[in-house]
Amino acid sequence: MYTEEFLINMGPQHPSTHGVLSLELKLDGEMIRDCAIHIGYLHRSMEKIAENRTYTQFIPFTDRLDYMASMNNNLAYVMAVEKLMRMDVPARAKYIRVIVAELNRIASHLLAIGTFAQDLGAFGTPLLYCLREREKIMDIFNEICGNRLTYNYIRIGGVQYDLPEGIDLKIGEFIKYMRPKVDDYDQLLTYNTIFLARSKHIGTISKEMAISYSLTGPNLRGSGVKWDLRKDEPYLVYDKFDFDIPVGANGDAWDRYKVRVEEMRQSLRIIEQAIGGLPEGEALSKAGRIHKPAPGEAYFRAENPRGELGFYLVSDGSAYPYRLKIRSPSFSNLAILPELVRGLKVADIICVLGSLDIVMGEIDR
Amino acid sequence: MRQGEIYTAIISKFPEVKEESGTGSIIIPKESLTKIARYLTGQPLSLDNLHCITAIDRKDKIEVVYIFYSICERHGLTLKVHLTYDDPNIASLTDIWRSANWLERETYDLMGVNFMGHPDLRRILNPYDWKGYPLRKDYSNPEFKAKPRL
Amino acid sequence: MVTILTFIFMLAMGALILGFIAVSAMFLIWWERKVSAHIQSRLGPMRVGWHGALQSVADVLKLLLKEDIRPAEVDILVWWLAPFFAVVPSVMAFVVIPFGGNLIIKDLNVGILYIASISSVCVIGIFMAGWGSNNKYSLLGGMRSAAQMISYELPLILSLIMVAMRAGSLSMQRIVESQAGCWNILHPDMAVACIIYLIAATAEVNRAPFDIPEAESELVAGFHTEYSGMKFAMFFLGEYTNLFIVAAIAATLFFGGWHGPFLPPVVWFLIKTYGLIFVWMWVRWTFPRVRVDQLMEFAWKILTPAALVNLAIVGWILLK
To answer: Residue B65 and residue C149: Cα distance in Å, rounded?
Structure first.
């Protein structure tokens, strides 16, 4: 019987490619022979724009990089600028930064889990539960800074506004509400037979491959490498808190999913400790709007929900950066996809892509 | 290992490297890139994670920056190579670190650095038939008007 | 020789059945949206009528008025006929469904055989849709569905045979009457047959967790990607009619048909059928989807051997 390979385009518009990503699959029946990735549909040339904006003017642009975790992006950029200018930040601002960054980590992981379950076919129910939890986080952020998705809250030298009255009670209630919900997800999805059959031993990444491809975040930890910037190169006040780093055993899609669920639990612990130990004092940034750092360069990387986001800043003494390079985690994470999908079925490529948890805004910048 | 120790380890084997003052990064000539790269992956440095590749247009030269980290030893290193405009060729590091594949494609796309030996050097962020290298300082685009500077 | 009276009777029955199917499908669409919404902690349709009860009417009107888009390179006869092949067999199966004591259009003495053979024709419809659309995604969807439905025919028919063996007849009314004292599901071997039937039937009607042919996240919309307007409505109608048919068969074969105290038999029959449909909907909105090769493995390596073993057990019990 004569069979032929055929090319299928999971084109830029597709219900489950997490944004505008084009995958060109060479299929032999249901089996994938090869996969070519085309990105760049969302390229907005942010690095070039940065050369024409002041340091403060660029903060809203960082929101739109990984729009699921805006606070973390702001944080990484602002800390890179502060490193360049050797500026210090008041203690209360550091605690507030930790609280909002961890809340945003929970929100981002909720969406990652929900869309992963949706891609596997649990059509709607886990995703809508996750979105219900996200609504609560967005309400808290709405009170803190007025925005639901792109916050522009963390500023050079501190944060934009101090926390409003009563927000620590709201956050405490949220933590109490969220803890049993994370156990709910475990019960509904994690140990479900069909879910396990669909995601175990799919897309296995070995430790060496993970480090060689420079994977970071839950993808790296899912493969068994215990590396988290919050513990290994602590910034802000993470060294004062007590939390664990979940690590997966095999490096398959299920492990990466499980690491994300566990990280949500650990983030709840961090937020609880941060709210408990919030110091009094100034939180606003006194640094003014125009900054002219001395000529030099700095590189800072922070632990985002998707990996390590790095900003490499070169300054020539003026109010505008001379060069800004954004090292995005999803860019490096996506490069491993063609390696993983050879020999898998079409349904599995969706599973692997969902487990890598990419956001196109970050990849294309 | 501390930064100073890393520098001493490298210069003892490759005397042609220089340290850049103020930033702690190391400048190497482009011919020795491959052999230094192989040395970096082995003991004692074991810089197994090529974290970032970027290029800066310094108006008189192109500076290619490599940022390495080591997961087991918990240290990092920044490496710089200077290239001229008429000869922006440099060896590719794809067979040593797999992450170099896409990072070098991006540097080629935005800055025009040609990585020799790269398995698939084409544009990655811009459309495949784009002309010009956008991040160069002399890149002009008729639709782009810079805002007045402060 | 068909007399005038028989002819008028046939027309009337046909109209009645089609009317019932239309109303039932509209009710089921509304009910599915409400059930899924409440499971997902939201509300569902609320505006059109009381709690959105007239939403289906609005949707049907919209689908009737939509433009019928025909892609340029389709295989026109195949593409045009596919919706009919998907719907007509399900409607034909209504002939032998016993709605009440004597409320059955024609109690064929090969009722079960008739249903099994007619429902297999649905596969052709989906396969034709996949091929005729001139679209790689649809082709994948059509292929998958053909493989799936053929694989699950075997456990389905085996479980039907088990019931027929116990009742001693292939006729639907006879099977219902044989459950007069005790419903079939209360016997352990019949309970196993019921479980096998329910799983196989879920795969036959392409409902989750076996809804691979229309797997939205992978194949955009599977075999009905290229259909719009009334043709799409026909596929939709076919899916809900199929759901009613398999639930009705399950109610008849395993849950005692129209037997029940106090209320008229029709009401009991409808309660049992819609109760089973509710269970199907509940399962759909809870579980993820299985992958195609896992589906095949489950059918051939687990379900069919289990059905054969159970068939032997049923035969042994009857011989005792």
So the answer is: 58
Establish whether chain C is in contact with chain A, requiring a minimum of 3 CB pairs below 8 angstroms.
yes
Q: In whole angstroms, what is the distance from residue C286 CA to residue C206 CA?
A: 16
In this complex, is the C-beta atom of B134 within 8 Å of any C-beta atom belonging to chain A? yes
Compute CA distances A328 → A77, A80, A325, whole Å: 12, 14, 9
Chains C and B touch (3+ CB pairs under 8 A): no
- Interchain CB contact of B61 with A (< 8 Å): no
Residue A162 belongs to domain with CATH number: 1.10.645.10
Task: Say whether domain B3-116 belongs to CATH 3.30.460.80.
Answer: yes
Residue B11 CA, distance from chain mean position = 19
Interchain proximity C137–A8, CB inside 8 Å: yes
Helices (H), C93-135: 111-119, 122-132
Q: CA A68 to CA A365: how far, in whole Å? A: 14
Q: Would you list the domain boundaries of chain B?
A: 3-116
The verdict on residue C17 lying in a domain is no
CA distance C230 to chain A (A): 24
Q: What are the chain B neighbours of A45 within 8 Å (beta carbons)?
A: 134
What is the model's pLDDT at position A310? 92
Among the listed residues A302, A286, A288, A301, the one whose alpha carbon sits nearest the alpha carbon of residue A55? A288
Q: What is the ipTM of this complex?
A: 0.89
Residue of B67, B72, B97, B102 to mutate, testing the A interface (most A Cβ within 10 Å of its Cβ): B102
Nearest-CA distance from A275 to chain B in Å? 30
Angle at A288 between CA A94 and CA A91, to 5 degrees: 15
Are the CB atoms for A220 and A292 separated by under 8 Å? no
Q: How far is CA B7 from the centre of its chain?
A: 18
Q: Is A159 a member of any domain?
A: yes
CB A102 within 8 A of CB A270: yes
Residue A97 near residue A160 (C-beta atoms within 8 A):
no
One-character DSSP codes across C83-103: HHHHHHHHHHGGGG---SSS-
- Of A282, A347, B37, the residue nearest C213 (C-alpha): A347
Which amino acid is residue C295, in one-letter code?
Answer: L
Helix (H, G, I), strand (E, B) or coil at C160: helix
Asked if the Cβ–Cβ distance from C288 to A195 is below 8 Å, we say: yes
Does A1 reside within a domain? no
Number of domains in chain C: 1
Please tell me whether the peptide bond between B119 and the residue prior to it is cis, using omega within 30 degrees of 0: no
> In this complex, do C218 and A30 lie within 8 Å of one another by their Cβ atoms?
no
pLDDT in tens, A249-283: 888 889 999 999 999 999 999 999 998 888 888 87
* Alpha carbon distance C304, C42 (integer Å): 39
Would you say residue A287 lies in a domain?
Answer: yes
Q: How far apart are CA A168 and CA A277, in angstroms?
A: 11
> Cβ(B62)–Cβ(B55) under 8 Å?
yes
Residue C8: inside a domain, yes or no? Answer: no
Enclosing domain of residue C112? 57-319
- Give dist(CA C42, CA C53) in Å, integer: 16
Predicted TM-score of the model (pTM)? 0.86
User: Which of C41, C219, C291 is the closest to A198 by Cβ?
Assistant: C291
How far is residue A176's CA from residue A275's CA, in Å, rounded to a whole number? 13
Residue A276: domain span:
6-364
Neighbours of C168 (CB within 10 A): 11
Instruction: Note whether A345 contacts C: Cβ–Cβ < 8 A.
Output: yes
Instruction: Please name the member of C39, C140, C220 whose beta carbon is closest to the beta carbon of A15.
Output: C220
- C268-305: pLDDT as tens digits: 888 999 999 999 988 888 887 787 778 888 888 998 99
Question: Which one has a higher pLDDT value, A119 or A308?
Answer: A308
Q: Measured between alpha carbons, how far is B68 from A100 in angstroms, rounded to an integer?
A: 30
